[in-house]
Amino acid sequence: MAKLNLHPNVDKEIKKGIAWSVHAFTTSGIVLGFLALVAVLKGDAVLAFVMLGLALFVDGVDGTLARKARVTEYTPNFDGASLDLVIDFFTYVAVPALMIYWFNMVPVPFYFVPSTWSLVAASLIMAVSCYTFANVGMKSSDYYFVGFPAIWNVVVLYFYLFNTGWLINLITVIALSVLTFVPIKFVHPLRVTHWRSITIPMTVVWAAMTLSLVISGRNPGYDDWIYKLQLGIFGLCSLYFAWISLWRTFVLGDEGDELETDTPAA
Questions:
Q1: Domain presence at residue 2
Q2: What averages of pLDDT result for each successive group of 10 residues across the chain (266 residues)?
Q3: What CATH number is attached to the domain comprising 72?
Q4: Which member of 48, 81, 140, 265 has the lowest number of beta carbons within 10 Å of its beta carbon?
Q5: 261, part of any domain
Q6: Model pTM score
Q7: 3-class secondary structure for the chain?
């Protein structure tokens, strides 16, 4: 895209148009997030996860497109990084927090109003995630996230697929909220170069299993061996992402551990 060889003025305008189209593509993420929000309010968790999944796909590829289109060069007055952060906060944090409250995923039975703790958990998620998005050291120089990267859309997905109880959900929300401030490394599945030849296929398989499991509906039956197989593969992929994150934190350690600001270009 950035290597077109036309008349200089025409060439520049085409490249500007390409850059703006990348920004438009990024902006589609907020529309998908809004559709997920509407689905939540209608009680349709499956549609909400599908919309959030599409938004996750957009966020996963728009940075690469932005760098190839050189958006900072051809649209200098438009901050794609800010646009990306606004959309990410909505789709990664706000909508999942609403899902926890709306679907009452933390119904602590020892309190007079069970939904109160779902509201507390959702509020905690919203609050601690502000630190994540304001943290200039959000990523290490080798593109690992530093601290839990506020991927609450993925956390809620696990709650939904594994049908976890209120205690596990509550402990998970509290633990990940604490890990937001702890410099444990979390792998970025598309940008980290370590083990990339394995990580990329794992990401594709994880996404495929996620889509299949979500579309199949909530718990179609744990006696269904196909469902069990898909859930098992989904779990193994998840364990791989956990392993590479722990490997980077505790084995590789300080090597390549210098932080730099690294917000997406679009």
A1: no
A2: 55 87 94 98 95 94 88 89 94 97 89 79 97 91 92 96 92 97 92 91 94 76 76 94 93 62 39
A3: 1.20.120
A4: 81
A5: no
A6: 0.86
A7: CCCCCCCHHHHHHHHHHHHHHHHHHHHHHHHHHHHHHHHHHCCCHHHHHHHHHHHHHHHHHHHHHHHHHCHHHHCCCCCHHHHHHHHHHHHHHHHHHHHHHHCCCCCCCCCCCCHHHHHHHHHHHHHHHHHHHHCCCCEECCCCEECCCCCHHHHHHHHHHHCCCHHHHHHHHHHHHHHCCCCCEECCCCCCCCCHHHHHHHHHHHHHHHHHHHHCCCCCCCCCHHHHHHHHHHHHHHHHHHHHHHHHHHHHCCCCCCEECCCCCC
